[in-house]
Amino acid sequence: MNLELFAPELTLGAFAIIVILLDLFIQRKGLLAVISLVGLVVSGGFSVVLWGDSTQAMFNNMLVVDNFALFFKLLFLGIAALVILSSVDYVSKFARFQGEYYALVLLSTIGMMLMAATTELISIYMALELTGISFYILVGFLKDHKSNEASLKFLLLGAVASAILLYGMALVFGFTGETQLGEIARVIQTMSLTGVLASPGLILGIVLLIAGFGFKIAAVPFHMWAPDVYEGAPTPITAYLVAEEAAGFAIILRVFYSLFALPHWLSLEWGLIFAVLAAIGMTLGNVVAIPQTNIKRMLGYSSIAHAGYLMVGLATMGFSSAADILGQSSLLFFLGSYALTNLGAFIAIIAISNKLDSDRIDDYSGMGKRAPLLALGLTLCLVSLVGLPPTAGFMAKFYIFSGAVQHGLLWLVVIAVINSVVSAYYYLHVVKVMWLGKPVSQEKVPSSGALRVALSLACLGVLLLGIIPAPIMRLAELAAKMLIPG
C-alpha cells in the first residue's frame, strides 16, 4: 500500500486533530486559524507533488490518484483556505467553539477530496456522508432560530437524498454484480439496447443516482434546501457551500463518464436529462432571485441558476463522443471560476454584514462611500456572476456555451444566454444600491487584514481567469483527459 498517495488527506486529518487538541490549552484562538491554514498549505504541497500523467490506485482500487482528483483537491484546499481567512472576522459569534469550527472545515475538506478520488460505490457514499455530516453541523453553528432551522432542513432533506442515492447504487449493484466503477462499466458495455431496456431496475438506478447527486449540486427539482440554508448558515459557511457543489459535480463527472459514457446511445439519454434539468434550473433560479430582498437568499437562488449553467457542461458531455473532453474541461474551468467569484462576493458580504448586522439589500445603500474597497470587490464579483468581461465568469460561460453549441445544443445555449441577461437585473440592482444609494450612515466598515487578503486573492483570481484563462484551462484539460474510458 502506497500511503504517500494518501498524504494530502492524512496530513489534513492530522492537522484537524491538532486543532481540536490545541483548542483545549491555548487562550489565543487566532492561532487555530493559522494552524489550519498551515495544514491546508502542506496538504496542497503533497497534492502538487503527486500531479503526473498516470493513474495510481490504492485500497484495492477504491481510491485513485490522478490529475482529475488532484485538480479538485487543490480547488477544495484553496476554497477552504479563503474561507478560514475570511472567518477571522466572524468567529467571535461562536467564540467558545472556534476549535470545532476550524476542525470541521478541515474534515469536510477531507470528505470532498475523497469524493473526487473515489471509484467505488461504497466509498463514494462514505465520502458523501463525511462531507454532508460536517456541513450539517457547520450550517447550524450560530445556534439561533434561522441557523437551527437551516441546519434541520439541510439534515432532513440530505437524509432523504442519501437514501435515494443509496437505493440507486443498490439497484446498479443488483443488476451488474459490481461496486467498482470500472467493473460496472464493463458489464454495461456488454449489454445491448434490448438488454438495458429489459432491465428497468438499472434504468431506475441511473435516475435515482441523478436525483441523489442532484441534491448535492442544488439542481432543480432537488434545490429546495438551498435558499434557506444560504440565508441561515454562518456567512463563511454559506460561501463554503460552493465547495460542496463542486464536489457534487466531481462525483457526477467521474460516475457518469466512467459508467455510462459507452455505449453512446446511453450517454445521449442521460445527456438529454441533464439538458432539460439545466434549462429548468437556470430559469427557475434566476426568475425567483429577482424579488429577493436578502442578499444571501438571493445568492442562494443564484447558486441554483449556476447549477443549471454547469449542467450545460454535463449535457455536452453526454452528447459528445467518449474521447471528446470539451464538455468536461469547460465544466472544470467554470467550477474554478464560479468558486472564486462566489467566495469573493461572500467575503465582502461578511465584512459588510458584520457592521450592519443585516443581510438586507436595501441596507447596502451607499456602501460605495462607506467602504469603497469592499463595494468594489463585491461589484467585480457580481459582474462576474452576470458573465461580463473582463471577468472569470465571462470566460467560463464562453467555454461552456461554445462546447454546447459545437455538440448540437444551440437551443440550450439560447436559453442560457437569455437567463444570463435576466440575472443582470438582480445582480446589478445590488451594484446600483451600493454606488448610487444614499448612505444611511457615514460610519466606516472595518475589516481585518486576513479578510482583506482573502478578498484581494479572490478578486485577483476573478480578473486573472478573465484575462489569462489559458493556463487554468490547460490544467482542466489535463484533468479531464483522465476520465477518457480505456
Q: What can you see in these coordinates?
A:
- The structure is a single chain.
- The model has no long low-confidence stretch (mean pLDDT 88).
- This protein has helices at 7-23, 30-50, 67-87, 98-117, 121-139, 145-176, 181-189, 193-197, 200-216, 226-232, 235-259, 264-289, 295-319, 326-356, 367-370, 372-386, 392-406, 410-436, 449-467, 470-481, and strands at residues 56-58, 63-65.
- The relative contact order is 0.10.
- It has 20 helices and two strands.
- It is mostly helical and 486 residues long.
- It has a two-stranded antiparallel ribbon.
- The radius of gyration is 21 Å and the shape is globular.
- Strand 1 and strand 2 form a beta hairpin.
- 76% of the residues lie in helices and 1% in strands.
- The longest helix has 32 residues, at 145-176.
- The protein has a domain at 263-486.
- Helix 4 (98-117) packs antiparallel against helix 5.
Secondary-structure topology with pairs:
Blueprint: H1 7-23, H2 30-50, E1 56-58, E2 63-65, H3 67-87, H4 98-117, H5 121-139, H6 145-176, H7 181-189, H8 193-197, H9 200-216, H10 226-232, H11 235-259, H12 264-289, H13 295-319, H14 326-356, H15 367-370, H16 372-386, H17 392-406, H18 410-436, H19 449-467, H20 470-481
Antiparallel strand pairs: 1-2
Label this structure with key terms:
single chain; 486 residues; mainly alpha; two-stranded antiparallel ribbon
